[in-house]
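Final paragraph of the annual report: two paired records, presented back to back.
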Amino acid sequence: MAAPRTKTPVPDWIQNPYPHVEHSIVSFPEKYILLVTINRPAYMNCLPVEATIELGALWKWYDAEPELRCAVFTGAGQKAFCAGMDLKQRLDILQTDDVAFEYPSGGFGGMSNRTGKKPIIVACNGHAHGGGFEIVLNSDVIFASPNADFRLPEVQRGVSALAGALPRCMMLFGNHRTMDLALTGRLLTVQEAVVWGLVKEIVPQEKLLSRAISYAREIASLSPDSVIISRLGAREAWETGVSRATMRGQELYAEAMLRSVNAAEGLAAYREKREPRWLPSYL
């Protein structure tokens, strides 16, 4: 459940209304800049399937809106940017055999496998775990608060990070650092993330959003065409390799993993706040 949402008036320089969102707040801090805030602080800003579908539509609207040039993405509160997928909802889907609505083409949060046209700057105001880390890995520039940290905890839950994180980590960090993160589910501290080249700056919590908006203003002051073309030109090698690897991972492994007894056990243990009791793998 999202926190109460207040709808910001749409400025007159926006040509088309943005899609309806229930789990995020959309605002316009100044001309040319979009600010999107995940609004589930009581749940560490984790995203149910519906929130990901909303964000997928919102980012497509952003790319198509002529006067928007740069976006900033953050989370409500001071504890988490995004703690990933709503695992309790995912367990319900597995146990009831309900239909899980298909994620948008951009992946988790509409972003984990997004190419898009325009840049998205992340103001990471706390934990970015699981899908939240997958979003961060595919954003364009990251500013982070001192309490931010990053994690792929999927091996602790009986699932795997197949929304783009694994091949992106491999390209960004190399084999051994990726294996360290992916095979243990350990925390990557914000200080390590700076050393690894992931985070641009560590900014005090109270100044984080204003710093990200200031940076977005700098980008928005430049040629919109040049920004779009330069971004896509730089991402070309990334996209031809990472996107295909992500799709192959989903095609080969995702369904078998989610139908395994260990996926149900890992998600149930998370909900029940206990240690999982793993069973032998039959994959």
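The closing record of the year follows.
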Amino acid sequence: MGDVLAGFHAAWEFESDSVLIRYERGIRTPKLFQALGERRVPVEAIAGVTLTPGRRGTVVLRVQPREGADPLIEAAAGQLKESCDPYRLVLPAERETLAEYYADELTGMLGAAAHSEPADRYLVAAPEAPLHFKAYDGKASFDGKAVSFRWSWTGASSAKWKAGDQLFPVADLGGVEWRSPEALEGYLRLLPRDAAGATAPAAPQADQDPASVVFGLGYGPVHESLPFAAAVLAAVRDRGPATPVPVPAPRRDPADIAERIRHLGELHQQGLVTDEEFSSKKAQLLAEL
């Protein structure tokens, strides 16, 4: 066990080759930190260390993650608020001398190992599957091998209902695009790969794209949707060259199927679904029983 430096919401344990960050659980601790639990950051994943004055009599010790070393930071793409930065340790100002000592120690550990170039692989572990969260227009689930979107009849657009529930094996994905639910139009979009292996262009509107789920007030919060996006990103990068493995669709609850057929009928009556689309989708739903 190495030396431990405790601050607000987290404690950092300095080991010979890494920093183990343990986040507190409490009503004042950001929910993202609580969801992460703890993270081990190898020295080779750190690009630099800073110690700066904070607000209201505090100092902030921060490690700068190396570009491409952490799937969570890559998925966030600069959208995290400062208070939710998992690489900041806020301490009382009276502990500045101690914090300076550890900053110097960590800088010494980096030495020539400090890297400014992007990492060629993720060095910080992603959140582990299975993961799921409720979006405004459906439920997103990830079991480590495939992502599934199951549409909500109260929130999904007719375009998504026409397309049906979606299943995306990791081998078919080229990446993930996450827009914070704290933005006006937050969403999680999966970026499929085309036949040539390149990432296919995404649809312009997430609410019409079957490869996306959209967020809303209380739907897709950061502490649920961001770890989800990071886990998918890590799985995409770690996937092997093998061809996609088919993932069998789970059998559905008959009551759920009946509700979906009823809603499909409403779309048909409103003229949003053609006769052919209604018949085809109804047959598809009945086949899932």
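The radius of gyration is 22 Å. This concludes the annual technical report; the extension proposal builds directly on these records.
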